[in-house]
Amino acid sequence: MNKFRLKLSSNLKALLLNKAVDLLIVVVGVTIAFQLSNLKQKSDQKSLEHFYLESLVGDIDKDIKSINHILNELRSDSTLANICLSRHTLGTLSLDTLGYTLVSILSFETFNYRNDNTYTTLMNSHGLSIISNKDTRNMISEYYKSYKSIDRFEYVYTEFLLNDFHPYFTPFIDYATGKIGNPAILKDAQTNNSLLIAGAQLNDGIEAYKNALAKASEFRRILVEE
Prior knowledge:
Layout lengths: L1 H89 L4 H12 L10 H8 L9 H36 L3 E2 L4 E2 L8 H37 L1
Antiparallel strand pairs: 1-2
Helix pairs in contact: 1-2, 1-3, 1-5, 4-5
């Protein structure tokens, strides 16, 4: 009887040990599977973050190219306006110089083709949470806010050109050739005033685009370092 009990006790211990080992194997297996799942998820998230960062760099490169182009145009128009103002004051302003300046100013190019597709996708899906670095997230938000100052300048400047500048000069000039038919415009005070306002607004635009360019360049540097 004692032998039977001893054998039963041994079998029970062995059974319990086997069950414990089986349970341990299951627990370890589940833990490893969970960790592997987490690693894969983190890897997938990191890959997605890398994709977005690369896409943002591409967008910024296009923005920088557009901003530089428009900034050069604004600076050129500002220089022309200042030359006309200086010569108007001296009484040496020619019809050809004024005509060329008017056509150039009225050929104002806006920042219509901005490249914010990646940013829009981020905001419409994951938000910026997919970007792990807080400073980078802040830089992204700050950069795209710089569009607002450009929009504000372009709205004010376009309104001035359409409602004041263009209506005043239109009776005097053939925009197709840039030729001015009536030389009386050279001595008109309104010519000076219109060029002054255009020059002041061009300076505002230059500052807006310079700030956007500085932010874009800094933004790109940070993205590349990520």
